[in-house]
Amino acid sequence: MIYVDADACPVKAEIERVGTRHKVKMFVVSNGGIRPSPNPLVETVVVPDGPDVADIWIADRAGVGDVVITGDIPLAARCVENGAMVLKHNGEPLTTANIGNVLATRDLMTDMRAADPFRQGGGKPFSKADRSRFLDALERALRASQKG
Length: 148
Description:
- The protein has five helices and six strands.
- It is α/β, with parallel strands linked by helices and 148 residues long.
């Protein structure tokens, strides 16, 4: 199965296209505002408003053999711990080998922003290259999960 943390996910259409080709059930999870897909393999899950409700829904279900798409690092850590394969929107895999460093970097950046409220900026814009890397990574992850 594929679990999509759908709020602010720039690759929903790509996930649906690749998931459909592999005939994999997909759960698109959000707090609302996502247009449901007519695709029978896609289930739109709308969770109640609240902090991390969508993340909890995904983390409670994703496990070995599943693929999770998220930019949320704490959610990714929980899913990796449960044995799921996790991809960021740019195709970067989050694994047991790198999730600790990614979490530490996230925490450091949070502390730096808190220490300097005038600090501006954010992530770099999502590019065509990011989309292409994501498609390749998702294809590889689905093949690996189907091999078991």
